[in-house]
Amino acid sequence: MGNHNDIDLLANNACLLLQMCQMSSQIPVIKGANKPLTYAYHGHSGIQVHSENGIGNIKSPFENLNQIPLEKYENITAAQFIVQHVLNHPNEITLCAIGPLTNIALAISIGGEKFIKSVKKLVLMGGAIEGHGNKTAAAEANLANDPHAGRIVFDSFPNITMVGLNCTRQLPLNDEIRNKIRNLNSIGQFCYDITEHYTNILKSWNDPPCFNDPTAIMFLIRPDLFQGKKACVDVEDIGRLTSGLTVADWNGRWGRPLQTFILTNVNRIEFENELLIRLGRLHMFKPISEKQLSQLEKQIENSEN
Question: Where are the beta strands (DSSP E) in the chain?
């Protein structure tokens, strides 16, 4: 579930990214929930943070969007897809959630205990230990946007890695690293452009931008870059001022298993190096218009004559 209600926009943006990386035929896109579990969404829209089109209001590099990734599973929900594939591959799939936990909570309601036990582990970007949030004073956005789903997920899974703001704020998305990314290739330029709106608005809110979602992905790739500590984590879901707050019991006061590995430190230099290496390997297919295609065909025809 995204931070705003236009799930079609988010799905199309996912298709756009796959098309840019020439992976449209390899990875499916399945639409998920577009509202929290128990009440209507409140607060500013994700559009305010990420712009009207979700990618910094920059123009798509393609005249025609390839929606093949949406076609294969267009008749099922994201939660159904998750359950189906986890049960078909028990103890093999790591779930990585980089948004509100609504779809994971719905998957739990569909698949039950068998689904939970079949998940290898869960890695999620979200939460803020010690109550320094970014959506509210107390809560990080992904948990604040659906605290009830967050509580269900943390109550259910025995093996969670939490990539919270305590870790991601150690990785500033500043002009220095953005310019390094920009100079890599066309994908780097795209990343620079789509983060312009995002970084500017966060700066205007006195909330320095940082690498949030990419940090969860980096943990899957290079867990050696991170340090953390186990705790039992629960989510406040009814507090007037603290809804979405992640509370960590480090010492077992609740008498419950320490089910969450909370990332506390990251090697910033190595993180940035790995990020630049991986982005540098990507090359975007440069699309051409129908007019350009026609001209090329004529050139080929003339050369053959």
Answer: 94-97, 121-125, 160-163, 226-235, 246-249, 260-266
**Token pair for residue 111?**
């698949």
Residues near 220 by Cβ (< 8 Å), separated by ≥ 6? 94, 96, 123
Q: Give the residue from 293, 282, 283, 279 showing the smallest Cα distance to 64.
A: 293
Q: In the structure encoding, which two tokens stand for residue 11, read together?
A: 């799905």
| C-alpha closest to that of 111 among 93, 132, 138, 136 | 93
Contact status, residue 143 vs residue 167, Cβ threshold 8 Å: no
Averaged pLDDT, 16-35: 91
**Calpha distance 161→231 (Å, rounded):** 10
Find residue 233's DSSP bridge partners: 248
Torsion angle, alpha carbons of 80, 81, 84, 86, to 10 = -120
Report residue 256 as tokens. 């419950």
Summarize pLDDT for 111-136 with one digit per residue, the tens: 999 999 999 999 999 999 987 899 99
Q: Which residues of 266-303 are buried (b: 16+ CB within 10 A; e: fewer)?
A: bbeeebbeebbeebeebebeeeeeeeeeeeeeeeeeee
pTM (two decimals):
0.88
Q: Is 250 helix (H, G, I), strand (E, B) or coil?
A: coil
